[in-house]
Amino acid sequence: MNIKNLANMSSSIKPEPAKGSIKTLIGLLPFLQPYKRQFLLAGLALIVAAAATLAIPYAFRQMIDLGFGSRGIGGADAAASTLHIDLYFLALFGVACILGVATAARFYMVSWLGERVTADLRSAVYAHVVTQSPQFFETTKTGEVLSRLTTDTTLIQTLVGTSISMALRNGLLFIGGMVMLFITSVKLSSIIIVMLAAVVLPIVFYGRRVRKLSRESQDRVADASALAGEILNAMPTVQAFTHEEIEARRFGTSVERAFHTAMQRIRARSVLTMMAILLVFGAIVFVLWLGAHAVVQGSMSGGQLGQFILYASLVAGSIGALSEVLGDTQRAAGATERLLDLLAAQSPVQSVLLPETLPASLSSCTANGAALQLEDVVFHYPSRPDSNALMHLSLDIKPGETIAVVGPSGAGKTTLFQLLLRFYDPQQGRITLDGVDIRFLTLSALRSAIGIVPQDTVIFSENALENIRFGRADASDDEVIAAAKMAAAHEFIERLPQGYQSFLGERGVRLSGGQRQRIAIARALLKNPPLLLLDEATSALDAESERLVQTALEAAMVGRTTLVIAHRLATVQRADRIIVVEHGRIVETGTHTELIAQNGLYASLAALQFNTD
Ligand SMILES: Nc1ncnc2c1ncn2[C@@H]1O[C@H](COP(=O)(O)OP(=O)(O)OP(=O)(O)O)[C@@H](O)[C@H]1O
């Protein structure tokens, strides 16, 4: 349980990972391992198909030399020749049948693998990303994560579903074809080998360039989608400032940049393909020219040359395909690198291996709430190491107490909540819940004990029932309705067109601010936590909403410890204690009356903040 080490772990993903090489693909092995059997079957189908392909030129030669050859033309041998033709055509058809079945089987297995591995990878990356701390989401754009989940996984799907099998098939055809070329004619094949060596070097060199451009191209696409994601999430602001055109132009520029980089990659890849084909075929045409001379001089039969031509075109085709596969594989290697980076991101806030448990009274909140202690807490955000957001903050809260937290903007009020939820760990000091250091609890045990009503409630694209059930997934409908009643949300939900079944739409656009807050309060009540964190909305509600929200909050505070970032007079007046925070320190503590009497920071804040009530 070395907390220091845990805290020091970096959560951010590397901004620019080391150069992607095909070796990176080894990182995919854990995702392939569960499907060894399918791989084996696909491999078998592949070998059968490759063997059938390689058998075709041989059958072809037999047909020419033995079927049409000098032995078979005219006279007594005519009957035997017909038999030969029948046999060899039958054999050829047999081979084609095997090729058809084996190719279909390979395609099926390999495509299945591609889809399966991609689905697993997507789920694994997503499951990992949702456990990351806020720090991660500060440094990684949502759009980029989405792009990795979609574009990058699709590249890997191409790799597993197509490229690997293409590489293996063409690799086999290349090796088998070369062996058969040597068997057919050692002299011509030796010449081909020498020429091939001269052909491969430029291809390898150019392949590197294509890989680099691939990576850049993916980055640009990710940039564009990150930009779009950010803007689409802020549409009302964008439109209120009439920024539609500017944003459309900005996105257009980003898309153009992606297009430009993609074009560079496509150009490089076209050159690569052209070079590969020209060089390989050039070499083969030259060798065939030599072969034609050999047939004329009688040192080679026509069938032999036919067979050689077919094998040579198989070999040439396989080299062409391999160079193309190399491009895809390199793109997939880049994608794998980016996905593995995401998977490797470690949240600095981790559950300890041997967690302590909360006292039973806390896990089922029936008692009075939780005791909470902050002991000399010092904290700075990882992105701002030289500016402490909280400084030597100590606080002792008894079970059932209601504490109002007041302070100027930027004082550290929200930060305090973030630490209580363990979105971050303090650099110094500790926080205990009923005497247990919260770092020794599992994250889920800690967060289950805390209910939060944020300033701005997120409403999911679900009906009202499910939106409240977000507070506790296993709550029954009756429990949800009971919580809604306590939170003064029942009436307005009943009045919605389909009552609790009403779809609240993306971001709950159909609900007013006060209604959203009551949904949030209902969620918290459903969770029934011993510790409640409220962040009162600063925006003014109309008198009726205000009254309803206050009623709901009062219901929510009963029987639990409550910390509330207060913006309303009613709240501070009801609080057992008010703590006044400034520059990350507690500067005043007391009740409303006491603090007003002190005539310090609180008194001046109260005069400003609460005068509308
Ligand atoms: N994610 C973050 N990364 C870096 N600094 C942050 C982050 N969040 C807050 N801060 C800084 O920490 C300090 C305390 O911020 P905090 O949000 O806790 O203030 P607050 O009292 O809640 O203010 P407000 O009432 O305006 O919400 C501020 O100086 C703020 O700029």
TrEMBL record:
Position of the signal peptide: none
UniProt feature coiled coil, ranges: none
Chain ranges of the ABC transporter domain: 372-608
Alphabetized UniProt keyword annotations: ATP-binding, Cell membrane, Membrane, Nucleotide-binding, Transmembrane, Transmembrane helix
Domain ABC transmembrane type-1: residue ranges: 40-331
Subcellular location, record wording: Cell membrane
InterPro entries to which the protein is assigned, alphabetical: AAA+_ATPase, ABC1_TM_dom, ABC1_TM_sf, ABC_MsbA_ATP-bd, ABC_transporter-like_ATP-bd, ABC_transporter-like_CS, P-loop_NTPase, Type_1_exporter
Membrane spanning residue stretches: 39-60, 87-108, 166-183, 189-207, 271-296, 308-326
One Pfam family this sequence matches: ABC_membrane
Main location group: membrane
Annotated membrane topology: Multi-pass membrane protein
Designated name of the protein: ABC transporter
Organism this protein belongs to: Herbaspirillum hiltneri N3
